[in-house]
Amino acid sequence: MTQAAQDTVETAMGRWRLDGADPAAILQHLPKMDRVMLAIRLENFMHERLGTVDSVTVEGGRIQITGPEQAANLPADAFASVVLDISTIMRDKLYPRLEFLDAAGERIFSVTGLEGAAPMETALDGLARTTLPANPPAPRDETAEPAEIDPADPGLALLEKLQESAQPVTITAEFSGLTQSWQGTIEKIVPMGGYINVMTKGFHLHLAGGSVAGWETDANGHRALDADGAPTGLLVVPS
Description:
The protein is mainly beta. It contains four helices and 18 strands.
């Protein structure tokens, strides 16, 4: 029996709204969930931190999440509900996910368990759940080819320049009061599948090719701008 098959035998598969605690209280269970991926997903990029969580504190209306590879600061009132999804299997492994939804029902933050379903299920044991219908599969265009990344893409050009310099940077995602940051040197950039992918220990950035029209640069760093000149939520600050 494969590991994923073993996990599905031991774990109920499906989607549930968690009704037994508010979102901030649910996040306070993170230190008991082993390695997790915390993700802010915006229209044109995803900012992901991977590792264990040491502490979650709630103070002054803010939720501070810290760990060796974790650094997130979230407004406690940003989330209207939390959904537990146990349905994703990749490379023969089960990845449970907590989806934190805003008032419009949009996922703006997520926590994915990286060590199977058991740590997350155990941490959430006892919370009331309401069963939800499964998400329909996303439509796929089998004929579409991922766009090639233009070597002159402003997003790629800045990240490659910083990689070549080996200069430490802070890369931050900002959205509706949510912030998540990573500090370090850019070790690997992989343009693939229409995305510029920064891959380092404990951090992934997936930036859509062509989504950065330019950068607003000042003493506070480089702020990504879209084609209309509006900030995208991505901030890169050389140390």
